[in-house]
Amino acid sequence: MRRLIARLFHGRISSRDFSNRVSEMDYGRATADSIRDSVKFKAEPYSEKTPYRQFIESEGIPIHTGYHMPDVRTLPLGAWDRVGVQGAHVALEGAEGTDAAYIIEMPPGGRSKPQRYLFEEVIYVLEGEGETSVWHDRKNKHTFRWYKGSLFSPPLNVWREHVNRGQGPARLIAVTDLPIVMDLFHNAKFIFNNDFVFSDRYDGQRDFFECGPHKIRKGGSAPGVTGEGKTRDSYECSLIPDARTLTLFDAPARGRKNRTAEIQLADNTLQCHVSEFPVGTYKRAHRHGPGSHVLVIGGRGYTLLWKDTPRFSDSRIQMRVDWGDGSMFVPPDHWFHQHFNAGGDPARYMASTWIGGKYFAEGLGGGGRTHRLGTVPVHKGGNMIDYDDEDPAIRELYEQELKKSGVDIQMPARTRE
């Protein structure tokens, strides 16, 4: 296959002959089209735009930017020739070139073109139901089902194909580390047409996409975490049937009655966690490096973001993001941020980032270590603000918001002012 692709790229074989040869190899016409489409991009050197930015602009689909998206389920899409479906890129400011997202949507019966690539992705099903097939060779294809709320990750560089098996549109959102990979190699052929098989990650195991108690890793040490959050249970699998109902574990260090589950998908460096906090509560403020894509999957509330100082009122830059089901935002590098449940139901979100959980990634401005420094207060040299140390204006604002909804506050009284 590698030699055949090289002959296509150098003009030594026609597109028609290439498609015929690939079909004869049992990859199929759609795979041949995917390969032909993906070898066209070439990064422009000495550009003010990164290779990743150049690449997504070359794909001809909408690119949604800003600090947050109110509802990714309603973002406009366009015809995405490489993938064969409707799609859009989402490049939020807080990611700062470390990771990004894309959305695809398939009509009933629709399917994506087979794709493989050298970047990791965490996929969440926003709407619909269907199935995904993965394979190194078509004789050993594995297919699994997904539904609204499912969370999964095809292994690195396997072929993957998504199919809508429902009666309505199926919309999926993926967080990927393509920005790092594209900016580092700036070579689309290497990323999308690479034959290397990561058999250490996936070698056709039949239980690879199963999830249950046998997939929970008990205890263990989370890299870079100190204090109460250092040892915790986590899911180590590649498919979560429904992240909205996933069983979580007590994690009070991050907030009152907070519950969290760390999820290590497909032996990735990309890491994901799901967190939930009850009605009338909010989480402790903290800060970390760039790239954590927060996707709200239940509840209603808001997040305050600020920088430079632990005291919100003294910050020269302040931001408020109001969120609900389907909202997405990324706290910028080392900005303090604090999540508040302002509705009548528990608030649940998932956060995906490149920092590493199973495999610790410390680079890119220290993002890895500061992401994982979960429970050390600022007054002890850490990145979290205890409730007693927070700006009194934080609590006052929250009480005002709860009154609007007729919800009673469930936070403990401050022990010091």
Question: What are the salient characteristics of this protein?
Answer:
Jelly Rolls, 417 residues, globular, nine-stranded mixed β-sheet, eight-stranded mixed β-sheet
Q: Let me know the average pLDDT.
A: 88
What is the CATH architecture descriptor of the largest domain?
Answer: Sandwich
Helix fraction? 10-25%
The low-confidence parts are: none
Q: And the CATH topology of the largest domain?
A: Jelly Rolls
Q: From the helix content, strand content and strand pairing, which structural class follows? A: alpha+beta
CATH homology-level superfamily of the largest domain: Jelly Rolls
The main pleated sheet reads as: 9 strands, mixed
Task: Give the tally of structural domains.
Answer: 3
Q: How many E strands?
A: 25
Individual helix count? 8
Distance between the termini: 68 Å
Shape descriptor reads globular
CATH class category name of the largest domain: Mainly Beta
* Radius of gyration, taken over Cα atoms and rounded to an integer in Å: 22 Å
**Looking at the chains present, what oligomeric state does this protein adopt?**
single chain
Portion of residues in beta strands equals 25-35%
